[in-house]
Amino acid sequence: MASVIKLFDEREIAHRVEELATRIAGVIHGEFVVVGILKGSFVFVADLIRALDRAGCAPRVDFIRLSSYGQATESSGDVRLIGEVPSAVAGQVVLLADDVADTGLSLSRAKALLEAAGAAKVWTCAAVDKPSRRRVDFTPDFVCFTVGAQFVVGYGIDRAERYRHLSYIGVVD
Ligand code: IMP
Ligand code: MG
What we know:
The protein has helices at residues 10-27, 42-54, 105-116, and strands at 4-8, 33-38, 60-67, 80-82, 93-101, 121-129, 142-146, 152-153, 169-172. By secondary structure, the chain is α/β, with parallel strands linked by helices. The chain has a single domain (10-147), classed as 3-Layer(aba) Sandwich (Rossmann fold). The strands form 2 sheets. It has a 6-stranded mixed beta sheet with strand order 4-3-2-5-6-7, with helices on both faces. The protein binds inosinic acid and magnesium ion (MG).
């Protein structure tokens, strides 16, 4: 495996996730369900739900699975739902969470799917936002880190299924 240049270490990530949870707790009142987009969001969601608990929230947790990259580092533009949208989102406030907002296609497609399944309100968040890469008009409601156009890995985020296990976020050298 190639070496990875660290962008955000474990401490910075923990600090930003804590801040994000505090912000979310100030905006979303009452019951909600965190819906993570698999696979990339699993580490972020695991941290976020515990930070939300410390911020006084008691969210339920669910996941949906989307696929658009395969082995590539560019979105195919064809964002496919693998499996089903959880029916329990009907009438619920949802906080949709992804690892990276890049073209914006995945989060905006997932948001539309949840709305079509009857979600009352869909908030969106991403661990890493890359606004300069957008192909659709989409802005996540909450983000931890904003970066340029570089391809990031670690903290659940992969390149061709590698690097998800890293505790930090970085770029492959
Ligand atoms: P989008 O649909 O183009 O916004 O891309 C979102 C999905 O592509 C994310 O869920 C990631 O899985 C993947 N992705 C986008 N940018 C990166 C990156 O820099 N590193 C790894 N995966 C990425
Ligand atoms: Mg993903």
